[in-house]
Each structure stands twice: as structure tokens, then as C-alpha cells.
């Protein structure tokens, strides 16, 4: 996030009052304005997207027609009082965001943007943020003392310090009426309990995935679609829970990213559960290379040793012969023998997992070169 000074109507607000101070906001669900080089008059809209702590966002109506740009700190309508957030989207992109969520911007009701945040608003906002971690620790202890089977994952104070949202995770229904009374008496604020799932919690906490990149749920994803193990089966992935599960303990959301491509590629593939019968023996399906259009078979249904790559066209041909009561002499005839050889030799070591002694061999080469140079020098003498 670029560090710059925001100057608005004579009031100087350093970026530390916004992004840098509230580090959770600057790295969660960042929105890129790809229409920023187009004149603003082309996409007039009084709707703006406001980003609060972690992954919480909301659409608000700029009823006072303020000149808002990305990065402005504003005071918006809340219930009760007002909240403080940062502008992340304006103009046509907000309309597109609503349409993608199947929300009609003309019929829906939105809360208002009151004003640009004043220095007094920002100071109170800072004070509220500084109380969140301590409040969360105390709330967890209170919940434990009340023997409630729940975990309070985060606390978010409203910008005016009149309300606090407690995010919790629970496997079962929890009666937290007594907890709300204790929390309200202890912290002297209005209490709101909001239940989240394991995926939402992972998005709020953040982290790095097994791919080496920031978690999708923490960086850009704002909708969670259900993921099933069938997505891994269609993509011929190993059904290893340790590899398929993300940091939230659920199946990785990225299993759905390429699923449609695999399903589309498999439309013309024959059924894999049909045994191929030949005069030699029967062959059983083990795995499929979808993009090379090759299906691998072995003679043992419980073993993947001695796999034979069979083109999809040949599999369809044998299945058709079996339905007619015929059996071919061999799994692969002369037409496909050459293809089998090319498939078998098409392996490439793209990962670079060579021999463990590859560095030793390089050093040996250097030694040989040195010895050879010394010999040449002696001969020249």
C-alpha cells in the first residue's frame, strides 16, 4: 500500500490514521479500481464501498455528494451512532459489484455517508481499535467462566465506541443471553454477537497457503461456495485430507477454480468403471490424464503396477466391441503401439528433483578440469 499524504479541504490526515495504523484493513480484500484512468463524469454514482476491519465491507449512499476517492476516511451511518471506515470503491465499480451479488441498486436501501472523518473522529476511532484485543481476551475468559461451548475469535468496536461486535465460532447452538449481560456491564457498550464459520475465521486471521500465496479468503474472496470431495475426484487428485484441507480445516476453496475446465474436458470420455476385456486378460482403470486424453489401465484391479497408457479412442473402441460380445486380441494393437511409446517417454522433470549427489558431480567436474589444466601446463614446460 503506497504511503502518501491525503489532503482534503485544508485538513491534513497522514496515512497512518488510516491504512498503516489499522494494519488489518490494508491487506484484506483490497479492491483495484481498473476504471481510474477514465473520467469520473462517465460513471456518476452516489454509491461508495466502505471497508472496515478485516473482511467487513458495506455499500453506502453519498447523500451529501462529497468528493470521495479511494483512501478517504469517512463517518457513516450505523445503528446506533456512526462508524468509521475507509473508501475502497466509487462510481461504476460499485454498481457492478452490486449486480454481481444480484442486488438492484435502484430498489435496495443503503445507509448514508455522513461526512469525511474529522480529527476528533479519528482519535476516537484509534482509541476504539486499541481496546479490541484486550476486550477479546477478557471476553474469552468470561465465556469460559460461564461454561459456554464457543470461541470468541475477534472483537470489533464501532468507530464512536458505542457498540462492539463479538465474532464467535460454535459447533452447537449457544445461549449467550447471560454472556451479553455480563459483557455489557463490564465494557459499558452495546453488544452484538455475530457467528462466523471456520472459513470466515481463517479470512479474518489471514495467512499463507500451501501455494505460497496469501489466503484467497483473506485477500480477495468475499463469497464462500461449498466444496465437496467430488471436485478432487474429477481432477484426479489424491484424496489425502492433509493435502486437500486448508488452514481452516475445510476443503480448499481453490478445488473449485478449475473444476469446470475438467468437467468440460471429460464430456467425451468413456466411463472409467467399465472393465476392458481382451483375449489376453481383463484390464482395470487406474487413472486418467484428461488433457492428454489418455486412460491408464492395469491387469490387477487393486494394484497400479505396470500401468499401460491407452488412448481414449482405443478405450471407446474396446468398450464397443465388448458390448457386441467381441474381444480384441490385445489391449493395444499396432496402430497404438507407437503412441504408447511416445506417451511413456513424454515424462519431464519440471520440478528439478534430480539426484541428491548432483552437486557432488559438479564439484568433481571442476576437479577434473583443474587436473587437466595442470597437466597441460606441465606438458607446455
Overall number of strands: 14
The biggest beta sheet reads: 5 strands, mixed, barrel
The Rg value, from CA coordinates, equals: 31 Å
Morphology? elongated
Structural class: alpha+beta
* Percent of residues in helices: 25-40%
First-residue to last-residue Cα separation: 66 Å
Flag low-confidence runs. 1-26
Calculate the mean pLDDT score and round it: 81
Secondary-structure map with pairings?
Layout: E1 5-8, E2 11-14, H1 23-26, E3 47-51, E4 57-61, E5 73-77, E6 82-90, H2 92-100, E7 111-116, H3 119-145, E8 151-157, E9 163-169, H4 177-187, E10 190-195, H5 198-205, H6 216-219, H7 229-234, H8 241-244, H9 259-265, E11 276-277, E12 282-289, E13 294-298, E14 308-311, H10 312-323, H11 334-344, H12 358-380
Helix pairs in contact: 3-4
Give an overview in words.
The longest helix has 27 residues, at 119-145. The strands form 4 sheets. A 5-stranded mixed β-barrel has the order 3-4-7-5-6. Helices cover 33% and strands 20% of the residues. The chain has 381 residues and is α+β, with helices and mostly antiparallel strands.
Name a few traits of the molecule.
14 strands, alpha+beta, 4-stranded antiparallel sheet, disordered N terminus, 12 helices, 381 residues, elongated, 5-stranded mixed beta barrel
